[in-house]
Batch of 3 targets.
Target 1
Amino acid sequence: MNPRLDMDRIIDDRRTRIIVCCGSGGVGKTTAAAAIGLRAAERGRQTCVLTVDPARRLAQSMGLTSLDNTPRLIEGIDTSSGGSLHAMMLDMKRTFDEIVEAHADPVRAAQILANPFYQSLSSSFAGTQEYMAMEKLGQLRRSDEWDLIVVDTPPSRSALDFLDAPERLGRFLDGRLIRVLLSPAKATRPFTKVLNAGFSMMTGALTRLLGAQVLRDAQTFVTAFDTMFGGFRERADATYKLLQAPGTSFLVVAAPEPDALREASYFVERLDEERMPLAGLILNRVHRSPLPRLSAARALAAAETLDSSIPNDDTAPAEANGYTMAAAALRLHAERMSLSERERRVAGAFTSAHPAIPVVEVPALPVDVHDLAGLRDVGTALGSAV
């Protein structure tokens, strides 16, 4: 049997500074991250929840109409232990703009921000969101305003793409296209004329492919951005090392369903490959029966017995109605037991493959979580020893 994941121990350990929640879509990952943040704040931590998932559920559950790139204080939490709770949603382009404004002089920053190539890159370039998540996490950690940051990553396997951000950024910055675009500005020696002849052929091909204006925009952007490349790489590498360091805990969130647990296995294996500190698995929305000793088969048999015992005449309508209601309740119990048994078989396949991974189960709630009270219930399930 897998050890139980002790979330309160992780939350209460002041050495824990970052908790990263990852998992496939639709398993309640955002809710789990928000519940952890709320429970940590109400146990005395200065907590900030950063969501990279564009879904609006986090804001709604915390009583806000929206979240943006600035941490917002969450009202209505119990602050008697001295904690606080802030939440924010990553704005990819705004984060990129902030980096430019912080690391370039005002004139050069204005040139970069107005450049059409930059505007396209900062809004839609593949991998930008993951890199900006790394940047924002690094910014929050360096500010030292919060002693715990809870990160809610995007759904599906892209949730771990931010682990690749430093390497992918390095490949981009060291790539042939960047060298070509920088070559005109750096051609200052006589021997570069020969090289420039080759570069001219390549840029000619790029001009035909992209158009002269697009190529000029790209060259202008890369030339203005050149002095910032090293800083990008250094900060990404520093954040990557921060994720590997003691004080960071990764949590994989899954539902007791085959596809979700298959994705959870992928996350567990990938985190192990990257030497990231995995704290455990949150198995969310688990269905439990109030009468676990009454099997589905016995409940169905009892329901059939009641059906055959219902009076056929009209002399005892109340008695007949009672039989009918009891039989319906037994059938509902049988359905819950069948679902619970199926979920345990599916979860058992995961735990057998990963017997050392601590696991905590969160029971399925009768309604969707949409407020602080609901988040508090989830946090209680995560933290309470059962």
Note: The longest strand covers residues 278-286.
Target 2
Amino acid sequence: MKIPLLSLAKQKERLGESLNRAVQKVMDSGVFILGPEVRQFEAEFAAALQAREAIGVSDGTNALRIALQALGVGPKDEVILPSFTFIATATAISSLGATPVFADIDPISMNLDPVSAAKAVTPRTKALLPVHIFGFPADMDGLTALAKEKGLKIIEDCAQAHLSAFKGRAVGTIGNAGAFSFYPSKNLGAAGDAGAVTTQDPDLAEIIRELGNCGRVTGGPAYQHVRIGYTSRLDEIQAAVLRVKLTHLAQWTASRRRIAQRYIQDLQGLPLRLPELGTAGTKHTFHLFVIRCEKRDLLAQHLSKQGIGNGVYYPIPVHRQPVYEGLGKGLSLPHTDEASRTALALPMFPELEESEVDAVCRAVKEFFA
């Protein structure tokens, strides 16, 4: 039995006709940019999160960059973030001429540790950029308290955390802004690159819209530009695809949680560190199901030989990437290094069958036996 780490085939099979109709509707309309599909998706996505505003953009990296710029981050500023993340979290900061400052993660959640972040604050610090890694919310109480004490902004990286919640509030609605990716492999994925920024601040939302549309004032003259902006718009076809998929997102999320609960129950007692489901309104959405194992590489080889997909996220922390060699030199982030050395993702997607989950668990148990 071959079990992939991720499969979009069953999703495509089940939604194929609906997706084709949605795309054809856009093609027939002749409206491809800033049309009704984008407006409706923005409203529907905002409603799903109970966010006041959602602004569609071209991709998740630009969602971060535009949110940072709209909040005033620029040259000579510093932004604190975890090193245990995809590199785009850092490059969005660097693209504005600002400096990423890497802090350590909490050893349990693998999210930005407020204590480590506090130690990294300097007079140049402008913002905190927590990542809700793999779908588990960061400690927003601790980070919000730090931001309030130091006068900092918070931009939430929600690329892997669609419908995740911290104490009853959807991620992306707690900080000043939230940045979402709709890359095809995400829990809510487009048919290509796409993203969104969420905020509870309508004035900030207007700045974000202007930055993403070449600096134009929304509803103003077509060739009057008031900001240095970008061509970073969510297009109509991607919005149409996302609208179809958004109606299934809650059900897919429930399936991911059921699969995760089954993994956790079956793998208890093994020499592994298992992810938490979340309690008291804090909900993990399991973009990835990531275990930690001291024999990670050997376990990965064992699973691969049995046809079971697996993946290492992330083998090289961002502060150890060649491009950030100068910033990472001499930096000690022990929990980050430990996570990069031991983390392994097991198959996780909503259509995963119970028999497939059982097969994965058997293979993991066999390795330790």
Note: The mean pLDDT is 97.
Target 3
Amino acid sequence: MIRRDFIKTSASLSIAGAVTPGAALSVIASAKAPEDRQFWVDTLVKIAHPVLTNLSQGQLKKNMPVESVKGREQDRRNYTYLEAFGRLMAGMAPWLELGKDATPEGKRRAQYLELAHQSLTMAVDPKSPDFMNFNAGGQPVVDAAFLSHALIRAPKEFLGNIESSTRAHLVKALQSSRAITPYYSNWLLFSAMVEMALLKLGEQWDGMRVDYALKSHQSWYKGDGVYGDGLEFHFDYYNSYVIQPMLLDILQVLSQVQPSQQSLYQTVLKRAQRYAAIQERLISPEGTFPPIGRSLAYRFGAFQLLAQVALQQKLPTDIIPAQVRSALTAVIKRTMTAPNTFDKSNWLTIGFSGHQPSVGETYISTGSLYLCSTGLLPLGLPATDAFWTAPAQDWTAKKAWGGSDFKADHALTGLT
């Protein structure tokens, strides 16, 4: 039954994937709220399908292509599979957390929940052909953290329903990542996020790793809602790819056992709200955004922070949820309908808008690209939420360049 449904889904997605960027803009202009959510779900499923169908059967290493900088293919094979799974799940988890129901979307979600659990079993079982590397080299701590983030984002449906043997294997895998010393940068948050997952799993966790990551990032705050990546400021999207989403969720979990952390959480949230407002203004009327900084192959994952603040219903008061939905829909359509974004088997290819191999850096491979799924976090809001049901709204840049009135922008001061 599941296989037949997947065939139907894949066929419908191949039609959706044939839309050209020019046609996508006309679709954006006429999109209605329910159609937006359907497009987001279809996009998530198209991204997830090859990863989860192969991994759930222990065939990911066999069938997933590994695109990378020339000469780095063999090296990246040591890491790319955990990248694909951990990053995909970090974005997919809130949608899965809604659980199954009798709606077509709910039935679809039930299928992918089953695949996600089967995939987790394959990823952490030492006897599995797809057993993943959690401790050799430096990279695994990064994607152990993204997988940990997924567990935290779906505490009931993903973390809460893990079978006992898989749970034991998962704990050992996460604990083994402690062998990796993170760089003095955003990487400190990866070690901290793993510890938060171990906390949620009921295991001993290392408070020192968490405290060091939090204190370091407070000292790296540069003002106006932006952190440095280490001591220096980097003009890129790492405040959204990693820093602010992980700070928010680490502190939310930590506050449950250390209520005194609630004050720091509120400070971090105010900074995140400011950065989310900046991100919303970066989206052009056409649904494009500046190709600035490293890791552009993560595509619309650049807007994870805006997506997360929307998911958690913490948007600044002057930003209407529907305008965020409309803006992100425009971005997702511009990026995911670009020609050759997917290969013939629907695996993601390296690029920012389409297939652009030069965007791939030495640490980028096929698995890395699945961080784009984090731009879809608001799918964790029910279909009945105003984020999805309210009429489409112009976002700030569209108002500004269309001649409509819009509010002036002001820096966030204080909170140092």
Note: The radius of gyration is 20 Å.
